[in-house]
Write a structure and sequence with these properties.
Blueprint lengths: L3 E3 L11 H6 L5 H8 L5 E5 L7 H6 L3 E6 L2 H4 L6 E4 L11 E6 L9 H14 E10 L3 H5 L6 E3 L3 E12 L2 E10 L3 E10 L3 H10 L2 E6 L6 E6 L1
Length: 225
């Protein structure tokens, strides 16, 4: 499945609807970043989008560089340096206390892309820093089913369709609504990775899976070897 999206406003290359993501509030991510980053420390946010997490991190006093491949997304980021680039191609002449790779980007079905994403993390983290990765654990993939999601009042997020098209490879479509009259869809593919799979992929790029930060194990801390 090719990543794609539908609905009002600009749609990014991976199918993300810019207007919809601009409506979402920051969740637990700022607190999660604060668990591994020293006060006032530097954060490289890979796939920063519209700044949903960037802005709360800035409010907490962190020094953030926001990276995204979508100019429409980055145009909504305020108060910090932005870099327009594909994450896998990024080469900045500095290292950071924390490198953050969110949005389950690591679950890409393209193995070479995953390797390049993790290589970007490894070459931008300080020797004593941390890489913070959001992923979809294997057991979470196993629970995917049409109709699952959440209703936050004006905003609903629903998995409209999902299929395991080959062993460990899923194709899914999400349906987003706002206010009852605005509707977007986002279609994507995702690879089921076990803990051992992730640990091996990290090790190949000079990183060590250190610990899980959340009860659902969706946030991982990796450290340089």
């Amino acid at each position: 499945m090719r990543e794609s999206g539908t609905g009002p406003g600009p749609i990014t290359p991976d199918g993300s609807p810019v207007e919809f993501y601009s409506l979402l509030a920051a969740g637990d991510e700022p607190e999660i970043v604060a668990q591994v980053t020293p006060p006032g420390g530097s954060v490289l946010e890979l796939g920063a989008g519209v700044g949903r997490v960037t802005h709360p991190l800035l409010d907490r006093g962190f020094a953030v560089v926001a990276v995204d491949e979508s100019p429409e997304m980055l145009a909504r980021v305020r108060g910090t340096r932005t870099v327009l680039a594909r994450v896998q191609d990024l080469r900045l002449d500095r290292r950071f206390d924390t490198v953050m790779l969110a949005s389950q980007l690591v679950n890409t079905v393209h193995d070479a892309t995953r390797q390049a994403l993790l290589a970007t993390c490894a070459r931008h983290v300080k020797p004593a820093g941390a890489v913070l990765i959001q992923w979809m654990p294997a057991d979470a993939h196993d629970r995917w089913h049409p109709g699952m999601g959440r209703d936050d009042g004006d905003i609903t997020i629903t998995m409209a369709a999902v299929e395991e098209v080959s062993p460990g490879i899923y194709e899914a479509t999400m349906r987003y609504t706002y206010g009852g009259d605005k509707v977007w869809t986002q279609s994507f593919s995702s690879k089921r990775l076990t803990d051992d799979d992730l640990a091996a992929e990290l090790a190949a790029e000079g990183l060590r899976l250190d610990r899980f930060l959340t009860e659902d194990r969706s946030w991982v801390v990796a450290l340089p070897l």
